[in-house]
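Researcher: I'd like a candidate sequence for this fold, 433 residues long. If you have to choose between options at a position, lean toward the conservative one.
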């Protein structure tokens, strides 16, 4: 279902809206956000220099570092009395980065998430169970707002207590589940332990997944666990820019539709900052063009993706971004080689004898890094020969794809830690210098 007719405008209509909103935003930011005005002045620019969408590329970037330097509210365009809500990133990689909403921003948030939830199969008849932790994290609140706007009934069960989650799911007749991919897998596992076969005994038909990457291999595992016909989509958000609602997949499977009347996406060369043509891989930069409290202009997300502007079979005309291979914060550097945990996940899930649970352990050995992948077997086996064969297969695949010699440690089923929120797949024991 297409939630809003704004998702089907012609490119010319959409560009007209974007231009009007961009010019208004730049004028307001220049007037009210001192650190951004200084950046524009340093680049020799005033709002009068920005007269078209093409001029966007002249404007300076904002980085996470800028937000940290002006913590907490230096990039806000409104006085505190007009704030309606403050959320924040957890700050696992440094100072937390708050995100501020005016009343109008909350309304835009609901609209954006309602669109992506609808694109993922949500309907007003749904009973939607939200298994994201409620609190400072934008995920739970954003999905609740969006699904409410769609007209679904909300079960805000939050994270944790899987048996209780399944009790609600069964007794309330939950039809839509919001969770991280790893928690959705965990719930299916706990269900089986209770004698429930998710595809047969539960009524879930839509999985709106987020907050963690969804690899194609994990999507396939999800179908095995929850049923062939279940709608499975992922979406993209970033708390600094609003939270969930920037883009989301439709059911045609051709990428994530960007809510372009609220956000202008660009792809740049991360080294030179030059804007790259359609279809090229580069860093995603987002400009908020309808945000009252915290309108970030040309915010560098650090995430690598591509953009495509061809119309989609679903009927939406908004551009699509390719599903990410990894978030910039998740990238690992092992003996100089850059890799994402999702690459390890794809390999692990391609071996039928292995289950979907794994852990990457990084240690320092002399002057080099040692990487070990601990992974659970799908079923118990005592045959040394079989174990050796599996280990050899995984090692060879890791070597081919990542170009690294990685140790593999096979574990019995159900030995690795399970997560009720975002999975922690990496244990980095290397000393930071
Ligand atoms: Zn589509």
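Model: Candidate sequence:
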């Amino acid at each position: 279902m297409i939630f809003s007719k704004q998702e089907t405008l012609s490119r010319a209509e959409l560009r007209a809206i974007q231009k009007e909103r961009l010019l208004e935003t730049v004028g307001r930011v220049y007037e009210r956000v001192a650190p951004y005005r200084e950046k524009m002045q340093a680049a020799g620019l005033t709002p009068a220099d920005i007269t078209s969408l093409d001029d966007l590329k002249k404007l300076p970037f904002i980085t996470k570092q800028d937000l940290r330097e002006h913590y907490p509210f230096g990039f806000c365009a409104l006085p505190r009395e007009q704030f309606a809500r403050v959320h924040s990133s957890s700050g696992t990689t440094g100072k937390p980065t708050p995100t501020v909403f005016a009343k109008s921003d909350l309304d835009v948030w609901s609209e954006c998430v309602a669109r992506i939830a609808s694109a993922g199969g949500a309907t007003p008849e749904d009973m939607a169970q939200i298994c994201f932790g409620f609190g400072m994290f934008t995920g739970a609140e954003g999905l609740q707002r969006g699904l409410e706007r769609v007209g679904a009934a909300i079960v805000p069960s939050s994270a944790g207590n899987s048996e209780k989650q399944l009790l609600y799911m069964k007794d309330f007749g939950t039809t839509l589940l919001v969770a991280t991919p790893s928690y959705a897998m965990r719930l299916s596992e706990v269900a089986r332990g209770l004698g429930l076969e998710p595809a047969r005994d539960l009524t879930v038909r839509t999985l709106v997944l987020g907050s963690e990457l969804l690899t194609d291999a994990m999507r396939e595992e999800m179908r095995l666990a929850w049923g062939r016909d279940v709608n499975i989509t992922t979406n993209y958000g970033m708390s600094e820019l609003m939270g969930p609602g920037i883009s989301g997949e439709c059911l045609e499977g051709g990428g994530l539709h960007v809510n372009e009347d609220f956000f202008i996406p660009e792809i740049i060369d991360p080294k030179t900052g030059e804007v790259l043509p359609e279809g090229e891989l580069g860093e995603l930069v987002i400009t908020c063009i309808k945000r009252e409290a915290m309108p970030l202009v040309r915010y560098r997300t650090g995430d690598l993706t591509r953009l495509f502007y061809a119309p989609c079979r679903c009927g939406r005309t908004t551009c699509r971004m390719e599903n990410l291979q990894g978030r910039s914060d998740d990238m690992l550097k092992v003996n100089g080689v850059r890799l994402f945990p999702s690459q390890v996940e794809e390999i692990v899930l391609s071996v039928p004898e292995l289950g979907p649970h794994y852990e990457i352990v990084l240690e320092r050995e002399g002057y080099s890094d040692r990487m070990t992948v601990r992974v659970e077997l799908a079923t118990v086996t005592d045959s040394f020969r079989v174990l050796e064969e599996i280990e050899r297969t995984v090692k060879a695949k890791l070597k081919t794809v990542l170009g690294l010699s990685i140790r593999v440690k096979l574990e019995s089923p159900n030995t690795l830690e399970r997560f009720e929120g975002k999975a922690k797949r990496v244990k980095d024991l290397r000393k930071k210098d």
